[in-house]
Amino acid sequence: MFARKSTLLIVTEVFAGIAGYISFFLIARLWGGFAPTAIGIVEFGLAFVGMFSFAYDWGFREAHIKRVSEGKNLGKCIGTFLAVKIVFGITAIGLVLLSLFIWQNVLNKGFYDATKEVVIILFLFYYLILNIAHVPLATFEAQKKIAKRQISKSMELVVRLPLIALVVFAGVTGVKKLYPESTRDVIPPLFNWPGALSNLQRFLAAHAIGALAVAYLVGIFVVLLISLYYFRNYPIARPDKKVLRNYTTFALPVTLTAVSHKLSSYLDKVMLGFFWSAHEVGLYTGAKKFTLLLLFAAQAVSMILLPTISGYHTKKKYDLISKIAHQSERFLSLMLFPVITFLVIFPEQTMRILVSGTFTASASSLVYLSIYALIWCIMVPWRYMLLGIDEPVKASQIRLIGFGIHILLNFLLIPSWSPLASWGILGPTGAAVGSAISAAVMLVLYKLSLAEFTSNKISHWHLVLHFLAAVLAGGFFHVLVNVQGVLPMDRWFHLVGVSCGLAGVYVAILWLLKEFTDKDLYMIMDSLNPSKMMSYIKSEIKEK
């Protein structure tokens, strides 16, 4: 069942990621050279407000998951968590508005290029709705009700896709105002809109960036509605002081972790917007879209890990804790190594074929972000193991060290005066390198902090074998495509063929090394079994 839940998580996250990719692809292909700037403006607004999203939570989400998974009174937990989220939501709104006021009226600063005020205001409401939606979503996660959580969450991108398509098809007017380097001021609509809709088309074209932000807002509102529907029969009691103290005890040590996580998640885009422009933010986002699909895998596994490890820790089943963390790491490593290898070897072809020629400038960013994604995914099981065994202080310390390194590297590597500028490491590429290095440091620290708990219980030999197989398979196809030119890589079906071939050689090497066995194949096939997956989803949805 653990494998099936994990598979459902990964499948739904990838499905949502594909919907997000299609939205991104439409903008990139139909808006041409203006696309990076348009995407950059929206992503900057999302990142700017997202930096303050720690104020919506302060570590209480993980505390809620931890305590509910331990079997605490569900009604009191939900009531207390809801009250906390409402108070934090009001505080967060005040914090963002205060920061905007200080920036404009005290420091007498304006909004330059990427920092479009209207987009920031729209995303303020986006995070407010998301804050309330976290109550049912975190509860589903704590109870490992994965179908309910994923159906609710994945609807955001499903709803957002047609709305963004509508905006993109309407075209854009006033392009040069936002992107002076453009050779044209108007991007015509994809087709002639009927007379009854012509006013809507003109409105969308004149307010294209704001309309894209509204699509995000509508998507998250649908998530709230669906999650509340599944949540309708859950008990909600009055907030309880004892439960609040219990939550606070767990949340306080991880508060700094929560703050640093939010800041480090969004700071790279914000710094790119300030040091460079919306165009560079858009290029960086283009590369990051691919790595986000990989990070979904780690997110999927982590949703099950924390409540599962917490349950084992409560029952003092310490041997199972190490075992499940090790299995999760091996599963993620096994699945991700061939994907990462492909992106590292063929970044320019990937961006040109799957996005557009405009985004090939972000190929180097894609290489380092892919390495970052692999390191982060391998790190996730050990981070949640540390939290699951009630060591939030250690987890916070490691996260803060990683955050400090990330901030320092961003300040060093993103600006045009980067000391590694002669090597091409600046701007979007500098941001990607900083992310990869900080993640590597945190992985080492998590492993060292758990060395005593996991001593002599697990082996990491599988990582070496996966790396070896990936290098051999990747090297083989690098020679065929990039060196000898035997295999073409100009069309999407070339890309699919080479990626499948690389994955096949990778698995074959692992089979010869006895790292990939019949048991692994059976587990994957059983987890992907459509009838069993649908039976699981139906059984959970029907639960009261």
In short:
With 544 residues, the chain is an all-alpha fold.
The major beta sheet can be summarized as: 2 strands, antiparallel
Percent strand equals under 5%
Cα radius of gyration in angstroms: 23 Å
Mean pLDDT: 83
Strands across the major sheet, in which order?
1-2
Note poorly predicted spans.
none
The total count of strands amounts to 2
Q: Which H/E pattern describes the elements?
A: HHHHHHEHEHHHHHHHHHHHHH
In DSSP terms (H or I, runs of 4 or more residues), the helix count works out at 20
Percent of residues in helical segments? over 70%
Shape: globular
* C-alpha termini separation: 20 Å
The domain tally reads 1
Give me the secondary-structure category.
mainly alpha
Descriptive labels:
globular; mainly alpha; two-stranded antiparallel ribbon; 544 residues; 1% strand
Word description of this protein:
- Helix 3 (60-69) runs parallel beside helix 11 (278-314).
- Helices cover 77% and strands 1% of the residues.
- It is mostly helical and 544 residues long.
- It is globular.
- The protein has a two-stranded antiparallel sheet.
- The chain has one domain (2-458, 514-541).
